[in-house]
C-alpha cells in the first residue's frame, strides 16, 4: 500500500505527463515492480457471447434544477440581478450613486419604483429623475458580482420611455470591484413610447466582481425596465443565452437526457409558487418573475436575493437538450405543493388546468406550427418539433393524494398521446413506508417509468449495488432520478464532493449498469452550485463568476456516460456478480458500434487488487486495450478552482494476454477498460 501511495505522490510532485502515464500503466499492469496484495487474485469472467439486455441511449443523463443559483446567476448568462425591479424588495441588487460615493444627493437626481406597466406580468419599473448635472447614477451588483472578461463584448440593453424633459444620455460603465472602468458605452432614450435600446461594450480587463454603472446626463425623467447585460460569448453566441463554459461541461458528458426544471422547484413551497411553464415562454419582458423556493428553504443558507426571472424558460431548456443531444424530460406540477413545506393540494375537481398544462406542453414541444402552442414554439424560432417522448408528473410526491392525481394525468395524457412515456415518482426516500406504498400502487397500475431518489451515506451506495438485481424485469422501468452520496448527512452544509463519495457512487452505478434492463435512466443531483450562492451540497459542478470545475463525482458520471455501450454483458466472480467481494464492484457492456467490450471496475478497498479478467466467448481480442482510471491519494480528496482536474481520469493502454487481462487495481480506484473483440 505504501508503495502505491508513493506512485501517486510521484505523480503529484514531480512527474511529467509521460511519467504519469507510465506510473498508471504500471499500476494497471501485472507489474513485478509493485507490492501486490497478499490475497488471491480476483478472477472475473465476462461472457462476450451472451448479452443479457440492451443499454438504453438514455441511460446516463442530467438532472437540472434552479437551486444554488443554477439558472439565474449561473447557467443563464444574464449579469444584471433584478433586471426588472420585480423582486419583493424592488431595489435589491441596485444602489443609487452620486459620483461614485454611496450618498444620495437628492438635488442631483432620484429613483422611484413605479407600479405601472410595461407588461401586466412585469408591472414595476424604475423612474429616474435628474435635476442637475451633478452626477447621478445607479449601480447593479450582479449575482455576487459580475464576471467580466478581457476582450469580450458585453451587450447592454434596456427598455426605456422618456416621460418628461430632455432626452437623457445614459452612460453605461462596466467597472471592477474598486470602481475602475473596464469599458463603456451610451444610449439616449427619446420619446414617450417604451422602446428597447442597446449598446455593445468591449471589456479591457478581467474581473470576477464587476459591476454595472448607469450615469445619467441631461435633465428630465426617464423610465427604465428590463435592464440587461449579457456577454457576447454565450453558448452558440445566442442572445439571451447560456454560459458557454457551463454548457460545455454538460455537453462533454454526452448525456442521454436532460431533466428540467427540478426537483422541488417544480412543486413550489405552496401551489402559488409552483413552476408554471407557460409563464416561462414567449417574449422575455412578458415572463412573470417569481421567488425561488430555495430563497427561504434553509435558515443556515438564506438567499434573500434568489428569484426566478425565467429568462431560462422551457423553450431554452428544450433547445439546450437538443444542443447537447439529450432527450428532453420536463417534469410538471401534479397539483401538489412540496410535502416537506405546505403540502397544499389542489382539489380533484380543480385539477383540470394542471392536466391541461401537460397536454399543452406536449403540443408546444411536438405540435404542428398551426396548433396554438406549436405556433408559439415557431414564433420563438423553432418550427421543427422538439420530439418530446416523455414527461414527468410531480416530483417527490407521496401518499394516496398523489396516486389519485397521477391516475387522472395518465388517463388524459395517454388518451391523447398514447406514445408518450410518463415518469412518476415514488417519493423522496428509497425505502420505508412511503416508498413501499407508492411502489406497490404504481406497479399495480403498470407505470411506465418510476423515479427513485437516494441521498445517503457512501456506505449505503456500496451496500446497494445489488439493489436492482431482483427487480421485476417485466415491470415498470426505473429512473434513478436523483442520487448523490452524502459525506456528512443529507442537506448538511458540510457535505463534500470528495473521492470517497464519488467512488461509492461508481460502485453503485455498476449495479445500475448491470441492471440496465430495468434501470433505463440515471442522473446525479443537484447539478450546479455557485461557490458563493449555494444552498445544498454536494453538487456535480461548481462555478464562480468566471470559472467552473467538475467534481470527482462529475468525472465518474462522465466516464459511465462516455462508456455506456449498447448491451449488458454478464460479469461474474465465481457464480455471482461482482458486488463487493474483495472490495470490488464491476460491470461490463458491449459496445456494438465500436466492437469493444467495456469493463468498469471499482476497487473500494484500501489495498491494491490483482485482478484477472477473462473475456470468454470472444473469438479473439486485440493485443491491447485502453483504460481510463480515476484515483486519489486520499478518500477526502476534492477538486477545486485551483486544481479542477486533481481527481479526474488518466488514460493509458493495457496489454492483453490472449483473451485475458491481468490488472493490479490501485486502492480506492475506478477503472474503465475498453478492448476490441471479434
Ligand atoms: O436535489 C435537491 C432536492 O432533493 C430536489 O429538489 C428534490 O427533488 C430532492 O429532495
In a nutshell, what does this entry contain?
The chain is of the alpha+beta class. It contains eleven helices and 36 strands.
CATH topology of the largest domain: TIM Barrel
Classify the helix fraction into a percent range: 10-25%
Report the span from N to C terminus.
37 Å
Ranges where pLDDT stays below 50 over 5 or more residues in a row are 1-38
Q: What proportion of the residues form beta strands (DSSP E)?
A: 25-35%
Number of strands: 36
Strand order of the largest sheet: 3-15-18-19-20-21-22-23
Number of helices: 11
- Rg from alpha-carbon coordinates: 27 Å
Mean pLDDT: 92
Known CATH architecture of the largest domain? Alpha-Beta Barrel
- Which ions and ligands are bound to the chains? alpha-L-arabinofuranose
Largest sheet: 8 strands, parallel
In the residues, how many domains can be counted? 3
The dominant shape is globular
Q: By CATH's scheme, which homologous superfamily of the largest domain applies? A: Glycosidases
CATH class of the largest domain: Alpha Beta
Structural class: alpha+beta
